[in-house]
Amino acid sequence: MKQKKVKFLVGSLLIVSAIGYLITIGISNTSQYFFTVDELMSQKVSFAGTGMKVKGNVVNGSIQRDPDDYLNVNFLIEEKNASLKVSYQGVTPDMFIDGGEVVVEGTLGKDGVFHANTLLTSCPSKYEAEKEAGKMHPGKFPEADKYREPGLNKAEALPKTTI
Amino acid sequence: MNDIGEFTLLLALATALYGCVAYVMSARGNRIDLYLSADKTPIIVWACVVISSICLWKAFLTDDFSLQYVWAYSNRELDTFYKISSFWGGQKGSLLFWTLLLSTYMLVVYFQNRKKNLRVVPYAMAIMLLIVVFFLFLINFSTNPFERIPLPPEDGRGLNPLLQNYWMVIHPPTLYLGYVGFTVPFAFAVAALISKDLDDGWIRMTRKWTLLSWFFLCMGNLFGASWAYVELGWGGYWAWDPVENAAFMPLLVATAYLHSVMIQEKKDMMKVWNMSLVLLTFVMTIFGTFITRSGLIQSVHTFDEATLGYYFLAFLFVIIIACGGLIIARLPLLKSTNELDSFLSRESSFLFNNLVLLGIAFATFWGTIFPIISEAVRGVKITVGPPFYNQVNVPIGLALLALIGIGPVIAWRRATFSNLKKNFLKPVSAGIVAAVVLFPVIPLGNRTEIYTYITFVLCVFVLTSMFTEFYKGTVSRMGLHDESAVGALATMTWRNKRRYGGYIVHIGVVLIFAGIAGSQAYGTHTEKHLQIGESFEIRGYTITYEKLIAVEATNVKTRIIAQLAVERDGKRYWTGHPEKEFYKGQNQPVSEVDVLSTWKEDLYMILADFREDESATIKVYVNPMVSWMWTGGWIIAFGSMISMWPDRLEQRRRLDRVRRQEQLFPSPAQE
């Protein structure tokens, strides 16, 4: 009787410790610092070269796209009077707009420019909450009307496959 | 109308509070008069919440912008369809919706059980009423959906375009039905603890509820994944975001619970474990709500309201301490009569399945709260992202997949070599054959690809083991009853709904595993800025940007559509139309992706951007095997339906079993 109990206790412990080991290794291999812009700027140690996430708001009018390579974007993010220059290569999300809150993930270069691999924006429900709190972002998004120029084709019946 | 809505909410709170106290007092003091009066409260509470909800719906449908909530989530031009779903589009309404579902569940439980077991049911009703009280308290005093605007504006602000999607109508209610449903087993478990009526009565009473809630939770997660996939336009379906984790963790714990109750039903073991699991499942649903509503954990889609978070946290602590204490106090009564015999038995495979499921849940939990812990302990916020979850959960998930193949077919108590051979010869050989056949075909360059290879081999193993079960049953039935193969299969499944329904669910789960593995390992994507007429290649598809079309769809919506020709082997294969939609009054466009889905792979197109010269940035993903996941989801739904279907045969079998036990151990009749 006792023996069986010990046997199962040992078996379960083995599984639990294997999972625990995986978690520990996973944390130490993949964890990243998470700063807001002002926190990052007030750090005494240099974090150049380490991977991290930084949160801030896009500075109005700072979004610059490379005229030759549309997917190359440079912009500034700020939080409490500290700002950070970010460069990002890729398609930007719909809600990447002036004043919008973003989280960038990447590495801080020695030149002080943050090279982002991913660019995340806040989701609609949170965005709504911010608006409710009175933080309206005027935004500068291209109005669709501007593009309705003679060159554009009029609609045809469009079959659309979505799942 | 709004006054009525507000008043009925208060009335519901008062009634629920009274009902809760009266139920407990009637059960403690054996007072039938109090019981009779308490026994009316669930109906009154339900009616009040329904009236209040109707009032809110009416405000939405009649464009009553004197309500702040209606103003914030609707406007005159919104489709009626979305006006109805705006009800749960924001914080306040979703709490009311939650309460509506909870009180409806409570009402059904009330009608199902009120003439039964008078020792347990009053406590169960009291617990459910107590939870209703908590939510009604929040609604009344913290997030009242009937909050007025003194000077009603002309028009509302409108629903966020990202939420104007049919998934928005389906996904949250499905998830809520799952979340809320676990209140029922939880309430009965606590009632059993309080009343010391600790046989498996509460498990039998709530078995269907557990299955139903599990089913909704599972569907809710899958619907969420599909929503993310077709609507959010980043090519993926799961990002290990805290909010997704919040829905995933209760599903894992509930799955563990669903399995371990079988051991208690059949073998009268693991009583403490089951109590802890049902408590944990409920705690996880509240914790999930807490995550989405507190804004405490950095996520891309929370409601962001701190005060509400504290209420949830307090509620969570009370539940854990009260129920934990109760379980400890009842420990002597929860002793099992049987014990585990051998590692090679169904009992122990269920135990391991539980440990593995809880392992995944814990890893997910730890990753979700790690930023908070690290900030508290080390003063720096440290986050973990998808790499962490993948690195930890994939190996554990593979162990789980293997157990799906082992658990349902291994013998009870102690498997001998001969029945191991009988049950596992075919599946293991099939697995080995798959391993050998796939080895030269499949790339094995990195860790992901190796994991995927193992997943496929295990999938073959599990599927063979499941199909062998169906095959064996069908053949033996055909021999006995002289039925056709299809007839025998159908009758066999119908006569043993729980067992074969479960197997079907497992087949669905295997397909989901395969779909995840395939799409994670072999996906590819590219993004190009194109002029009209330019083309590029991806995975054998040649994609040509043909034209840009502007459509004024409605007064408030303008669609900009890119037309992309897809060629394969020199032949036109498909025309894709990804688009961007611009809504009046919203300063951000919405990307609508276009997907060509086949069983082999999805071709997934996004119009990322466009410019005045009609050049456009197109992002294309090739996601292999994604449709396997959705197919797996439908199979799970089908299997769950079968095992949930009311079963007279099973009821008779159960009665027989109870009678036999009573003959063996004479005891006064319980019902």
Chart the SSEs and their pairings.
The complex is a heterodimer of chains A (163) and B (671).
Chain A: H1 2-30, E1 32-36, H2 37-41, E2 51-58, E3 64-65, E4 72-79, E5 82-89, E6 101-108, E7 113-121, H3 124-132, H4 144-147
Parallel strand pairs in A: 1-2, 5-7
Antiparallel strand pairs in A: 2-4, 2-6, 3-4, 4-5, 6-7
Chain B: H1 2-29, H2 32-38, H3 41-61, H4 68-73, H5 80-85, H6 91-113, H7 121-141, H8 166-181, H9 183-195, H10 201-232, H11 242-267, H12 271-294, H13 306-329, H14 346-378, E1 382-383, H15 386-406, H16 417-441, H17 447-481, H18 485-495, H19 497-522, E2 524-530, E3 535-538, E4 541-552, E5 557-568, E6 571-576, E7 579-583, E8 590-592, E9 594-597, E10 601-610, E11 616-624, H20 626-644, H21 648-664
Antiparallel strand pairs in B: 2-11, 3-4, 4-5, 5-6, 5-7, 7-8, 9-10, 10-11
Helix pairs in contact in B: 1-2, 1-3, 1-7, 3-6, 6-7, 6-8, 7-9, 8-10, 9-10, 9-12, 10-11, 10-20, 11-12, 11-14, 12-13, 14-15, 15-17, 16-17, 17-18, 17-19, 18-19, 19-20
Give structural notes.
The complex is a heterodimer of chains A (163) and B (671). Chain A contains four helices and seven strands. Chain A is of the alpha+beta class. In chain A, strand 6 (101-108) and strand 7 form a beta hairpin. The longest helix of chain A has 29 residues, at 2-30. The N and C termini of chain A lie far apart (56 Å). Residues 124-163 of chain A have low confidence and may be disordered. Chain B has 671 residues and is an alpha+beta fold. Chain B has 21 helices and eleven strands. Chains A and B meet through helix 1, strand 1, helix 3 and helix 4 of A and helix 14, strand 1, helix 15, strand 4 and strand 5 of B.
